[in-house]
Amino acid sequence: MQRKVTKAIFPVAGLGTRFLPATKSIPKEIMTLVDRPLIQYAIDEAREAGITEFIFVTSRGKGALEDYFDHAPQLEFELLKKGKTELLEILKNTNMDSGAIAYIRQHKALGLGHAVWCARRLIGNEPFAVILPDDVISAKESCLKQMVQAYNEVGGSMVAAMEVPRDKTSSYGILEVGQQHENLLAINGMVEKPPQGDAPSNLAVIGRYILTPSIFAHIEKQKIGVGREIQLTDAIANEIALGQAVNGFQFEGKRFDCGTKAGFLQATISFALARNDLRDELADYLQELVSVSNAAQ
Ligand code: UTP
């Protein structure tokens, strides 16, 4: 029987340069997908997976994130007074129980591996999840929930895996894959952003992980990797090299890379089209755009 995964780390200390100038004053994770900030999707996914302790690795300028999870008594009072119960319910979903959320600072953006390492004392001696909020995954059952269920069966460490086009492998952490059993892949190695043509497969790691505390020792020893950052991929690759079992999990669902402008726009359209209150109007508009552009050709 595996120890339960109840803690999740949300590394949100990155600079978000691909969304400048917006991210000069707004944390990337507060940017809204339809009407909810990216971070809300990540929190909902974690809750669905049974996570009860939420650890944010933040940095300077991310105060809006902390405020977002605070109670807003004045706003709640006004909504109550006006009988706006539906909005009140939506708002309550953003509140976190006292003590369920912790913030820790990464003083320098030294990379994802380093951000995760900053939370080591809050993790203690338990397995934990890592969620990157800019990877938004739309799925019937949340991606992390699928992973936790698989982890409860097989243990070890686990990374979410997804096939990507061969010519895009240099943008991802790529898996060297051994045996496959249904959704689970035994991982023999991992390489962060391999040069074009060097990728061991076209299976990429997506921003969901279940790790064990032994990873912290590997991050600590870690040299600067690709992009002059301390990479989580390199630390996991070290664990694999020392015989730790690491599985890739091919989740069911669609992943949107909301760390890029194109991915964010695709997610916005897709999530809006999935909403009853927006679908018809947006679909009509998109159709109109397509026919105008076809007519112009
Ligand atoms: P990204 O590679 O997307 O970097 O980080 P970024 O800084 O957020 O965005 P760009 O590339 O400048 O546009 C992936 C995840 O790792 C976190 C980010 O916040 C994001 O959730 N991260 C990255 C940190 O927490 N600290 C770091 O030093 C680097």
Concise summary:
The protein is of the alpha/beta class and 297 residues long. It has helices spanning 38-48, 63-68, 73-81, 85-92, 112-117, 120-123, 143-154, 215-221, 232-241, 261-273, 279-296, and strands at residues 7-11, 32-33, 36-37, 53-58, 101-105, 128-131, 135-138, 157-163, 173-181, 184-192, 203-211, 246-250, 254-257. β2 (32-33) and β3 form a beta hairpin.
Describe the 3D structure.
- There is one protein chain.
- This protein is α/β, with parallel strands linked by helices and 297 residues long.
- The chain has a single domain (7-259), classed as Alpha-Beta Complex (Spore Coat Polysaccharide Biosynthesis Protein SpsA, Chain A).
- The chain is built from 11 helices and 13 strands.
- It has helices at residues 38-48, 63-68, 73-81, 85-92, 112-117, 120-123, 143-154, 215-221, 232-241, 261-273, 279-296; strands at residues 7-11, 32-33, 36-37, 53-58, 101-105, 128-131, 135-138, 157-163, 173-181, 184-192, 203-211, 246-250, 254-257.
- The strands form 3 sheets. It has a 9-stranded mixed beta sheet.
- α8 packs across α9 (232-241).
- The N and C termini lie far apart (62 Å).
- Residues 11-18, 28, 57, 106, 109-112, 114-115, 132-134, 259 line the site of uridine 5'-triphosphate.
